[in-house]
Design the sequence.
C-alpha cells in the first residue's frame, strides 16, 4: 500500500527490485506500474422522472483505489424529502473499487428546482457534486389575476389564470357566473379577454396539465354602473 499519494506522484513508475543489496546482476525492472493520480467528484444519477407523490431514487457514486481507506459518501440532509432512506453498495471494478450511496424517498412539489448535493470525503480532501431537481406535479394552486381592480359595466377586461405546476398547463377552462346564468369557455392560453362585462359577474378558472387539474376559487368582479331612474 502506498500512502499519502499526491498530485506530484502522477505518472510515477514503480517496480519491485528483489534483493537490491545483493551482488547479483539481475534486477527486475521489466514489470512496472504507473500511478495515475486523479481528483474526481462523485457522480449523481437519477434513474427516472420524478413525479410528486411517487418514489424516486438518486445514486451517488465514486471510484477509489484503496479498499483499506475508502472515502465516505454523504448526501445533504434535505428537510423537503419525505420518508427517505440510504443504501450503500460496494464492488471491485477492474482493480479499483466502486462505491455507491443510494437516496430513496417520496417526491414532493416543494423539491422542484431545489438542489441536492453529494460529497465524497477522502483522507485529505473532500469533493462534491450537486444536481438541480425537476419534479413533475399537477397544478397545486390556481388563482385568478385581474388586469384591473375595477371595471365599468359594458367594458372589457383581461383575466389571467395563474397556476403553480410543472409542466405548465396545456388547457384552461373558464367559468362565468352572472346571476342565474353559467357559462364555460375553453382555452389553451392562460389569459382570457372578456367583453361586455355585466354587473354581478363572478369568474373561476381550471388549469390542467398531464398530471392533473385544479380549479381556483370564485372571484367577484368589482363592476361600476349607473342607476337609471325617472325624474318626475
Sequence:
Amino acid at each position: 500500500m502506498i500512502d499519502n499519494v499526491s498530485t506530484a506522484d502522477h505518472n510515477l513508475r514503480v517496480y519491485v527490485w528483489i534483493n537490491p543489496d545483493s551482488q547479483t546482476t539481475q534486477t527486475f525492472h521489466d514489470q512496472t506500474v504507473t500511478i495515475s493520480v486523479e481528483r474526481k467528484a462523485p457522480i449523481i444519477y437519477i434513474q427516472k422522472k420524478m413525479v410528486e407523490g411517487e418514489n424516486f431514487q438518486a445514486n451517488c457514486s465514486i471510484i477509489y483505489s484503496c479498499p483499506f481507506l475508502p472515502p465516505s459518501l454523504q448526501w445533504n440532509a434535505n428537510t423537503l424529502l419525505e420518508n427517505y432512506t440510504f443504501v450503500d453498495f460496494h464492488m471491485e471494478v477492474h482493480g479499483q473499487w466502486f462505491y455507491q450511496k443510494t437516496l430513496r424517498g417520496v417526491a414532493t412539489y416543494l423539491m422542484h428546482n431545489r438542489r441536492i448535493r453529494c460529497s465524497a470525503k477522502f483522507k485529505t480532501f473532500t469533493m462534491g457534486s450537486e444536481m438541480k431537481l425537476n419534479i413533475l406535479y399537477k397544478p397545486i394552486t390556481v388563482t385568478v389575476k385581474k388586469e384591473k381592480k375595477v371595471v365599468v359595466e359594458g367594458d372589457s377586461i383581461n383575466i389571467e389564470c395563474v397556476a403553480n405546476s410543472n409542466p405548465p398547463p396545456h388547457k384552461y377552462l373558464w367559468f362565468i357566473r352572472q346571476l342565474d346564468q353559467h357559462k364555460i369557455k375553453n382555452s389553451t392560453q392562460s389569459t382570457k379577454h372578456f367583453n361586455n362585462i355585466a354587473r354581478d359577474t363572478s369568474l373561476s378558472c381550471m388549469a390542467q396539465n398531464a398530471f392533473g387539474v385544479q380549479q381556483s376559487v370564485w372571484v367577484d368582479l368589482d363592476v361600476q354602473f349607473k342607476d337609471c331612474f325617472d325624474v318626475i
Summary: The chain is about 0% helix and 50% strand. The mean pLDDT is 86.
